[in-house]
Amino acid sequence: MDRKVTQQVTRATFDEVMVPNYAPSAIIPVRGEGSRVWDKEGKEYIDFAGGIAVTALGHSHPTLVNVMREQAGQLWHLANIMTNEPALRLAKKLTEKTFADRVFFANSGAEANEAAFKLARRYAFDHFGPEKHEIIAFNKSFHGRTLFTVSVGGQAKYKEGFEPTPGGIQHCDYNNIEQLKAIISDKTCAVVMEPIQGEGGIIPADKEFAQQVRELCDQYNALLVYDEVQSGVGRTGTFFAYEQLGVTPDVLTTAKALGNGFPVGAMLATEKAAKSLAFGTHGSTYGGNPMACAIAEAVIDIIDTPEVLAGVKERHDIFVAGLEAINEKHHVFKDIRGMGLLIGAEVIDSLAGKAGTFITAAAEEGLFVLVAGPNVLRLAPSLIITKEEITEGLTRLEKAIVKAVADAKAA
């Protein structure tokens, strides 16, 4: 039978058929290989965005393509009333490589966080009763787009118009232990934090702060939940970022890089905490499907190696040196910060609110970059991007910055 002719689409098609919650660029990528992407016109781009910290092994990684094809020829989906071999293999690897004893699989970071927040409340209910239900999170944090996760997230704009949102949630400033001490209590069931705030501006946790948060959670019998959706799976130069802080959480969530773009998320927990998600308390139709888990296992096998993790730290230094060199010439950044290959460059006050103009200018020069809020340029490339691509991409970035600054001054 003849295959149906592929329907032609353009950027205008988006405005005709999609809900307008996104505003994608005019570029329509059609092919990717490693850290390079080509659009419909054949223009080549270097990818410093990584699909928002997702394609940690780049595009069309041959090992992952082969694993996907092999699994696609076996099983795509199993109901969770069945035992699922790929899911069990992946869970075993995750528990062997982390603090965790138990794993719950979902399809996204938001779903993994939803499970973590439900677990925290259920754990407190089981052990201390219904009064111990309050969750503390941090201003500028981001934990997903479900109603519960935007409520825990510390950015009011994501809740606007969706009220009433779930209650029993408080916020304080990140890296401010005194504010946390002022609001934590015996009613607190969990403290939720990112080891490095992603959407909030690429802000790493102070090591002392992170350790004091752990101590407060122990003091008040609250679970410490780490959201490593963006920072996990090698992004910071260790398998998970918590390893660099001298802190062990009770619950951890991961997604993004875990599937290198195939939808998969996971919540990891200690056995003591995990017991509270007893039979029937939570679930997911697609979570932990064989396709996702087979791919995620291959991702872990490649990333969690001394060569790749050491390479992340080496590439971090190249990026930071390159950004500092650009800044010495053009004086556009007031701070360059981050961990591993999650790097933020905060623009100077005179460019406040205009970091987004760098994205447009960079695309014109053949480079994909991101922002983290209106003032921070964010880089989250493949963990195995070549040094030549870093150098070429930084050259393109410098050209884009020169153009964007000139346009800003002319406006």
Give the structure's gist in a few sentences.
Helices cover 38% and strands 18% of the residues. It is an alpha/beta fold and 411 residues long.
Give helix and strand order, one letter per element, not per position: HEEEHHHEHEHEHEEEHEEEHHHEEHEEEH
Number of domains: 2
At CATH level 3, the topology of the largest domain is: Aspartate Aminotransferase, domain 2
Strand order of the largest sheet: 4-12-11-10-7-5-6
Distance between the termini: 57 Å
Q: Main sheet, how many strands, which sense, barrel?
A: 7 strands, mixed
The number of helical elements comes to 13
Contiguous runs where pLDDT drops below 50 for at least 5 residues = none
Give the helix level as a range of percent. 25-40%
Write up this protein:
The structure is a single chain. With 411 residues, this protein is of the alpha/beta class. It has 2 domains: 11-60 and 306-410, Aspartate Aminotransferase, domain 1 (Alpha-Beta Complex), CATH 3.90.1150; 75-303, Type I PLP-dependent aspartate aminotransferase-like (Major domain) (Aspartate Aminotransferase, domain 2, 3-Layer(aba) Sandwich). It is 38% helix and 18% strand. It is built from 13 helices and 17 strands. Helix 4 (85-97) packs parallel to helix 10. It starts with 10 loop residues before the first helix and ends with a helix. The mean pLDDT is 96.
